[in-house]
Amino acid sequence: MAKMWEGVTSGQTDCLADDFNSSIHFDKRLFTQDIKGSMAHAAMLASKGIISEEDCKLITDGLAGILADLKSGALDFDLSCEDIHMFVEQVLTERIGDAGKKLHTARSRNDQVAMDMRLYLRDETDGISALIKELIKALCEQAEQHTETIMPGYTHLQRAQPINFAHHLLAYVQMLKRDLGRLEDCRARMNVSPIGSCALAGTTYDTDRAMEAELLGFSGVCANSMDGVSDRDFCLELMSALSIMMMHLSRLSEELILWSSWEFRFVKLSDAFTTGSSIMPQKKNPDMAELIRGKTGRVYGDLAALLTTLKGLPLAYNKDMQEDKETVFDAVDTAKMCLKVMAPMIETMTALPQNMLKASREGFINATDLADYLVKKGMPFRTAYKISGQIVALCEEKGKVLEDLSLAEYKGFSELFGKDLFAEIDIRNCMEKRTSEGGASSAAAKKQLEELKKEFVI
User: Fold this and answer.
1) What is the pLDDT of residues 31-58, one digit of tens each?
2) Which terminal residue of the chain, N or C, has fewer Cβ atoms less than 10 Å from its own Cβ?
3) Catalytic (active-site) positions
4) How far is the C-alpha of 92 from the C-alpha of 435, rounded, in Å?
5) CA-to-CA distance for 133 and 334, rounded, in angstroms?
6) pTM value?
C-alpha cells in the first residue's frame, strides 16, 4: 500500500518495519476524537477561505459517514494503515475524492495526535470521576447504617482507640474527594488545544486556532507550538492522579481482605465478589479485592514507563512518543475496571457489628481514656500514662479487661480513682466523647455524612 508520506522517500519500508512502526492496532480507539477533530478543522479551514464551503461540506458529511459506519460495525479498521489518522484520511479520500486530500492542510499528525489524546483523555477523565462518585455513594450508604457501630481503630495494625465503622469508611471518602480534585485540576490543564502547532513551528496559513479550539470544547490554545506537539504532561499528570487513586483503592482492598478473614470477621463480602478454592471447600477468597490491590502496581508501572520514555527526549516530536498510548490506555482501563468492581463490592458488603464490638472490648482501646481520667483529676499526663500502662499490665496478668477491675484495685494505683471511672472507660462513652471536629463520635460521623450527601446529591 502506498504511504501518504511518500515523497523524499520511496515509502517502501520493510514489512517488519511496517508492523513495528504501526500504531493503529491500539490508537484505533481514538477514532471518535480523530473524526470530530477533523470536522472542526474542516470548519475552520472553510471559515478562513483556505478550502471552499463545498469541500467543507463534502469532508464533513464524509467524516460523519465514516464515524457512523465505524460505530455500527459497517466499516472495519484497516490494520495495514499506519495509524488511525491515515486510516480516516484514506477512507475519506476513497469516498469523496480529491476534497479529502485537502483536510490535512495546516496541520500535522504531530498536533493531530496530541489533540486526539487530549480529547480522549478529557472524556475518560470525566468517566473516571463519575465512577469515583459512585464509589463515594456506596461508601456513604454503608457508613449511614453504621454511625453507631463500634470497632477498634488501629495504628501499626494494633488496636488503638474506639471509633465507629462509619468513621473508618468515611476516611476513604475523604481520600476519594482528593482524587476527584486532582482529576479536576488535571482536566483543566489537559483542556488546551495543540491543533495549529502543526509539525512543530506553526503554519504559514491564516488559521483561527481559537475557533477550532472552541468548536472542540477546549478552554484555550497551547501558547508555544513546540510545546504543543511535544507535551505529554497531561498524560503523566492523569496517570499520577490515577496512581494515587489506585493506592487508595489498594489500601481499602487490604482492609477488606483483613476484615473478611476469620481472624477479624468484621465484614462478610458478597459471594458475587469472592471465589472458592479448587481444593479447600471451606474457602471464600476475596479475589476481587486482591486483584485491585495487585493491579495498583500495574498502574504505577504504566506511569514509570512513560516517565522513562519521555525523560531524555529533545524537542519537539519524536517517534518514542507513540509509546504514550499503550501505557496511558492501560492505566485508564485498569483504573476504570477497579472502580467498577469496588463500588458494588462495598455496596453488597455485610458488616458484622458484634464481632467489631467484641474486638473493641478485648484490646484495651480505652486505656487512653483511663489516662485522661487521671489528668482531668489533676495528675500530669506522663504520670497518668505510666499508671495506666501498669494497670493494663495487671489486667493482662489476670486475664481481665479494664472494666473488670474493682475500684479497690484501681485505688491501689491512685486515690484519684472514684466511682465515676467506670462511665469514663465505657467503650461506647469513649467513642462518643470524641466530639472534636472530624472526631470519631457517632454525631461527628453523621455530620460528615450530611455534608457529603449535600455535596454529592446522595
Assistant:
1) 999 999 999 999 999 999 999 999 999 9
2) N
3) 156, 277
4) 67
5) 17
6) 0.93
